Amino acid sequence: MYHTWMRYFTPSPAHHALGLVCLGVGLQHGTLPAVGPRTLDHHVAVIIGAGSGWYTGADGRTHTVTAPALIWITPGITHHYGADPATGWDESFVDFTGPATDTYTRLGYIEPTRPVVPLSDAAAARTTVGRIARAARRGNPLLEVETGAAVHELLVTLRRARADTNADGDPVLKALSRDACRPLTITEHAARHGMTPTELRNAVRNGAGCSPKDYLLGIRLGRAKELLAATDLPVAAVARRVGYHDPAYFSRIFTRRVGTPPVVFRKQQSHTVHGGWSDQIPDPDDPPTITT
Fold first, then answer.
1. The model scores a pTM over 0.90
2. Per-residue pLDDT tens for 73-126?
3. How far apart are CA 167 and CA 211, in angstroms?
4. Rounded to an integer, what distance in angstroms lies between the CA atom of residue 64 and that of residue 83?
5. Which of 5, 56, 112, 262 could bond 74 through an S-S bridge, CB–CB 3.0 to 4.6 Å?
């Protein structure tokens, strides 16, 4: 016995130009029939919230699937999967496509070589799928944009829910973030963690989807933007604050990555911050009281 609910969509070329579109969503549970063998031309995220089953890929290897888990279906890859006929499983799925999938794959959010991914918890992902299901009501004029935006959110949620991700964040990435504005080389950063530069590169690539250099640069430039927008510090002082002893080099790298020189960015963004700049992330559900 099983129960199935699903909807499929056909986004227009204009919606495809947004980079990511949802093609379908489904919620199923019970002793579902096996899927495949089949090959698709788009991606599917299959989230198993309860129960167990199996997955067989193009290489003929069969993987045990135990909830909570994620099954990645990627274009052009023959696959075959199903729930344990004795226990069944609780499944939700989202079909999607678009050029942004290539970038998400490079960043490690979609893993074609890892079709079965253990999750620490499927609740947040199922909540996002539920949002897509509610948007799928007949006659919703925002359907394509609303569901496409939710697919972006789903990919982030699934990345965060991976069982191999520390709930408090990757300790290497946290330490790099803390030390990002210190004038240290990649080799020196690696040594501080008892790692070789190659090991550090692999750790950052797996955790953040980029090189240590790009990860550190993003943090440094973000801090530099804050200082340029909220203080009157000279550009040379801003450069030193974020780890660059050579102001000219800082200006070149800032201009190349941001698209405008530091002085121009300051003119565009600068404003007086009464009471000082806050390092506390505000709670949107509890905004501060404004007094005059």
1. no
2. 999 999 999 999 998 999 999 999 999 999 999 988 999 999 999 999 999 999
3. 22
4. 10
5. 112
